[in-house]
Amino acid sequence: MKTIILAGxxxxxxxxxxxxxxxxxxxxxxxxxxxxxxTYYSGLIPRLIMGEINVSDLTIESAQYAKRKGVQYIQDSVxxxxxxxxxxxxxxGSTQTFDILSLNTGAQPAEIPTLAPFNTVYLKPFPTFIDxxxxxxxxxxxxxxxxxxxxxxGSAAVEVATALRVRLDRNQARRSEVHLVSKxxxxxxxxxxxxxxxxxxSLLKNRVDVHLNELVSExxxxxxxxxxxxxxxxxxxxxxxxxxxxxxxxxxxxxxxSPDVYAAGDNASLDAYPDLPKSGVIAVHQGRYLAxxxxxxxxxxxxxxxxxxxxxxxxxxxxxxxxxxIWGNRSFEGRLALEIKNRIDSxxxxxxx
Length: 353
What we know:
Blueprint: E1 3-7, H1 11-19, H2 22-27, E2 29-34, E3 39-40, H3 45-50, E4 59-60, H4 62-68, E5 72-75, E6 78-82, E7 87-90, E8 95-97, E9 100-103, E10 108-109, E11 120-122, H5 126-142, E12 147-151, H6 155-170, E13 177-181, H7 193-205, E14 209-211, E15 223-225, E16 231-233, E17 236-239, E18 243-244, E19 250-251, E20 256-258, E21 261-263, E22 269-270, H8 280-298, E23 313-319, E24 322-327, E25 330-334, H9 335-350
Parallel strand pairs: 1-2, 1-9, 2-5, 9-21, 11-17, 12-13, 12-17, 13-14, 19-22
Antiparallel strand pairs: 3-4, 6-7, 7-8, 10-18, 15-16, 20-21, 23-24, 24-25
Helix pairs in contact: 1-8
């Protein structure tokens, strides 16, 4: 009997859990180690912000799901691991040995020095964001015209800014403000310039003020200062910049750190695909690959290299009743795109019921 440890309960490992059969979990020992018994589905965060769903609607009871699949759950997190001895040490001080270890422990944005810690909200890690969002909602209810700043220029920042604007408009906060501040020269740089420009126009149409080529290096008590000297006041500032890891984990074409240690999601960087974006879509694809790779190894075979699909399907919220569907260098915006997104999100969540 082999021991396979899944450290972290991100989207990649959820795909592995989903793929496991009872026969596989009785023949071998599978263990899920995560500090949180729940996982939050990132695709529904914008709808939470818009007030369309509750926290329970985007919560996956990953620990319970693992147990139903015959997978042991340990509520803990990995402190260190040693590939040579095939062992890991947990934060609790206990150790576990493994034959195969997969790391899907996530990452979070680099912290920005702030004099307003209670009003600075990081999008990741999601459990912390959920708790802080409850506080922001209380502020929204008490403040007639809130002022929000979103720092970041990627898809996540665009969706957060759009969702905040939708929420404020629904609350009839007509004099409220939403600013998007990015250090980049254009939004969503992983997309074509044409798509980037279309996203920019959608934000302006939704009355989100966009500030490009602005590096936020410090947050004052209630404001930030742009390089032209303009002062932007805020009630809450959201940080949705790209995730980073303190120890970059470069994996090979098999998503391996070493012969028996794998990594996926935000905490993995592929040498063969250095420009591959960090996203839930990519993490899901990596999880499906790892599920097949682990099965292949346990059956005495050798997995094929991981190859991401040429074009990734991404759908970004662009308004209260619209979204932008992006496929390679093509995109369209409208109600149909939103309906497709909602169907995909519903199907994904139903997969864990």
